[in-house]
Design brief:
Layout: E1 71-73, E2 77-84, E3 89-97, E4 103-110, E5 115-116, E6 123-124, E7 129-136, E8 143-153, E9 163-172, E10 175-178, E11 182-188, E12 193-201, E13 208-213, E14 219-230, E15 233-244, E16 251-261, E17 268-278, E18 281-284, E19 288-292, E20 298-307, E21 315-320, E22 329-336, E23 345-354, E24 360-370, E25 377-386
Parallel strand pairs: 2-9, 11-17, 19-25
Antiparallel strand pairs: 1-3, 3-7, 4-6, 4-8, 5-7, 8-9, 10-12, 12-15, 13-16, 14-15, 16-17, 18-20, 20-23, 21-24, 22-23, 24-25
Length: about 400
């Protein structure tokens, strides 16, 4: 066991048990039998059976019976058909209050952030007409989608169950990336890595002018250009290969590809790009987030360290540059690894301490020293914040 400082660690856990609710099926009840209670006792009333709940799909609200609803919509379904991904589209669901009472719309809920449905008016008198106006923004979306808008009212005839409005759309993106992000995954140190991707354009005579990685370690090569047909549309497809040479040191690379095209409406596109150059040792997690609400609050984290090929290795040092007031304690335990074939154990590093006294950013690191040839020192960033007060 290796310790950098000493501190008491307090942890507690609690388990909340939630009762299960059982819904009884609706059954015919027999008339209650009249009985006379002895003096001093209370006569119990017969228990009424629970009414069954209208079935619905898991995670979705109940749907109102439109034949009973006061608000009569001309239609609750709309198909936008094929649209581009440049400009939002709108539609108005028309309705009339077909009841003899005033109806108030309480809320209009949308199924995703791509849809908005602001209410200009909430209350409608008997016989009054109105609309639910929705706007769908296709930017960044592609393909066929079905969306829902749930309208909640104070209509007693439907027991406050939302009226569901539906629309479908087929977004034809002007420029498509396949895949939408490029990741080379884990690459062993000393090995090269490659990954292909394509840029597909819908405009006539479409072409890509340049593809530039913001991290110069990555190299880009243009491949073939061809004409393809997708869903009946003739498009231009251009292939690329992104690569990393075999001399990149152990690191986590997160950057962006800047793509320039000749399409005026889609001239500049950014594509996420990532790769992880790894050594013999595997560290989980590779960074430690720490967020505190109060000074002196105890905290605890763990790091697991093992060998990718189950070979023998040792931890020869363990330290931190965290402020002394955090009273960080570093403990090492070697535990059995039943899944390994050569090295039947791994290291577990336990990290504990208390929150600092002054609010603000926390930037520190855990330093692990090993006898591994390509990872003699592993640095784990420890970053976070101590809020100025508990409400933050």
């Amino acid at each position: 066991m290796i310790r950098s400082t000493t501190a008491a660690y307090l942890a507690s856990a609690s388990i909340l048990a939630f009762p299960l609710l059982a819904l009884a099926q609706e059954t015919k009840t027999q008339p209650p039998i009249e009985t006379k209670a002895p003096p001093g006792q209370v006569t119990l009333q017969p228990i009424q059976p629970l009414q069954p709940i209208q079935p619905t799909q898991p995670g979705q609200p109940l749907q109102a019976d439109l034949s009973k609803a006061a608000l009569k919509f001309e239609t609750v379904n709309h198909d936008f058909g094929k649209i581009g991904d440049e400009t939002p589209v709108q539609y108005s669901y028309k309705f009339v209050n077909n009841s003899d009472r005033t109806i108030t719309i309480g809320n209009v809920g949308v199924s995703c952030g791509c849809t908005s449905a602001p209410l200009a008016k909430k209350t409608y008198a008997p016989g009054e007409s109105g609309t639910i106006d929705i706007t769908y923004n296709p930017r960044g979306r592609r393909g066929k989608e079905i969306k829902h808008v749930n309208v909640t009212t104070d209509d007693p005839a439907i027991n406050n169950i939302p009226i569901q409005l539906n629309f479908s759309v087929d977004v034809r993106a002007r420029v498509m990336l396949e895949p939408v992000t490029v990741t080379l995954g884990e690459i062993r140190k000393g090995k090269a890595g490659t990954q292909n991707f394509t840029v597909i354009g819908r405009a006539e005579n479409f072409d890509v002018l340049s593809v530039t990685p913001r991290d110069a370690k990555f190299k880009v090569e243009r491949l073939e250009k061809s004409q393809v047909e997708i869903d009946g549309d003739k498009l231009t497809r251009i292939g690329y290969q992104i690569s990393l040479p075999d001399n990149v040191d152990i690191s986590t690379l997160r950057t962006v590809l800047d793509i320039q095209t000749n399409d005026i409406q889609k001239q500049a596109i950014q594509m996420p790009l990532s790769a992880d150059i790894v050594g013999d040792l595997r560290v989980l997690p590779d960074r430690l987030p720490v967020m505190f609400r109060a000074a002196g609050e105890p905290w605890f984290r763990e790091i697991r360290l093992d060998h990718r090929r189950d070979e023998e290795f040792s931890i020869v040092g363990l330290e931190t540059d965290a402020p002394a007031e955090m009273q960080v304690v570093l403990d090492i335990e070697r535990e059995q690894n039943k899944a390994a074939t050569k090295q039947p154990w791994f290291y577990r590093i336990r990290i504990s301490g208390i929150a600092p006294t002054k609010p603000g950013a926390i930037n520190a690191k855990i330093i692990i020293k090993t006898n591994s040839k390509d990872q003699e020192e592993i640095i784990i960033p420890m970053q976070g914040n101590l809020a100025a007060n508990a409400n933050q």
